[in-house]
Amino acid sequence: MDDRSWMYRDSPQGLRRMDYCNGVQGFINFATSIPRNFTDGDIRCPCRKCKNLKFLHQDVVTMHLLTKGFMEDYLCWYAHRELFVPDESMEEQVVGSTSSASNMHEVGNENSNPYRNMVMDAMRMSEGNVRECPIVEEEPNADAARFFDLLRDSDEPLWDGCTNHSKLSAVAQVFTIKSDHGLSEAGYDKIIEWARSILPEGNRLKENFYAAKSMMKPLGLGYHKIDICPNFCMLYYLENAEMTKCMTCGHSHYKPRTGRGKTLVAYKKLRYFPITPRLQRLFMSPRTAEHMTWHQSHHAVDGVMVHPSDGEAWKHFNSMHPPFSAESRNVRLGLCTDGFNPFGSEQSGAEYRCLSSFVD
Fold first, then answer.
1. Cβ neighbours of residue 117 under 8 Å, at least 6 residues apart?
2. Most distant CA pair in the chain, distance
3. Nearest CA to 116 among 88, 144, 81?
4. Band of residue 106 on the pLDDT scale cut at 50, 70, 90
5. Which of 126, 203, 248, 353 sits at a 20 to 30 Å CA gap from 304?
6. Within a 13 Å sphere around the CA of 112, how many CA atoms are in the beta-carbon half?
């Protein structure tokens, strides 16, 4: 990162140094060079009072920075879409000095920090909530605080001087290892305990699975736990949630209590992953949103089917539901199974296939 000590260097007798004034102008040039930084013609103000929570005209932002100074710990201008790109040695470092604003690109550049982009994609709705916040004297709301915390974690090195891992990237990669190899939580904690012991003092690796999971939770999508019959007869859901035994086979809903335990424990639980927020997540990223609407923008070739939208079933659905098909962002779910046998055992030979069944 270019030297930005000018941002917090004390000024004699309250006067701003020339390098500070030049730096502020460089910041304004950088922030205004990226169209996505603007909301109704205004940009975020990172002064000590506004703290990136209010959008103001660039001239007002300049005045705030000259009179109030920058907010604390804003050496990396993450809220103004400053990106990481690899240098000649493939080390990640912040770019976007006061003289290189014209060379910057918006989020989505293939050379940008992938973990920062992950946060932007996952928390886009929270970013919108921050933009709408009209009160600058208050602390950020919970969603805004999580968003900025994750952005800082994606940019903060794992330890001072580390160039190949950030606080967020380290946790994300260890989580991947845990998932790929089926590590238990106890095993995860032991590995982290060992890793922290060999890393430099003052490293920022989360100390255990619970802390790491809490850090990563805002990036994930939730699920609902629903009690079910262990024989898979029914769900204990909605009006049936309070039933104590299965209405089909009579199996008990809960395990027998042991000792003085007062908590009822179901024999089996189902984890339901709602599909709506997962489809919405696909539209939060510009990269995946483009693929979600490709069916309407691509040019079909007569006699060639390269996508289900070129087929007769899709076209028939469009003719039956014109309002739905007119909006390219509406999603059709294609249910497909290959070799599923609903009519008996595998020995019966009754193989069943179902392809391209559309559900709006």
1. 107, 108
2. 91
3. 81
4. very low
5. 353
6. 21
Closest CA to 154 of 100, 201, 215: 215
CB 80 within 8 A of CB 59: no
Calpha distance 147→26 (Å, rounded): 26
- CA 188 vs CA 41, 154, 178, 182: distances in Å: 48, 21, 7, 10
Tokens of 304: 């060639």
So what's the pLDDT on residue 342?
55
* pLDDT number for residue 334: 72
pLDDT average, residue stretch 129-145: 45
Check if the beta carbon of residue 45 is closer than 8 Å to that of residue 61: yes
Share of the chain above pLDDT 90, in %: 17
The C-alpha atoms of residue 360 and residue 322 are separated, in whole angstroms, by 12
Cα separations in angstroms, 257 against 9, 235, 240, 250, 252:
65, 21, 21, 18, 12
**Global model pTM greater than 0.85:** no
Using only C-alpha atoms, what is the Rg of the chain? 27
329 burial type by CB count under 10 A (0-12 exposed, 13-18 middle, 19+ buried): exposed
Contacts of 68 (CB under 8 A, 6+ apart): 47, 48, 49
**Is it the case that residue 218 has pLDDT exceeding 80?**
no
CA–CA separation, 219 and 35 (whole Å): 26
Residue 169: the pLDDT is 86
Q: Among all chains, which residue has been given the structure tokens 């999508």?
A: 221
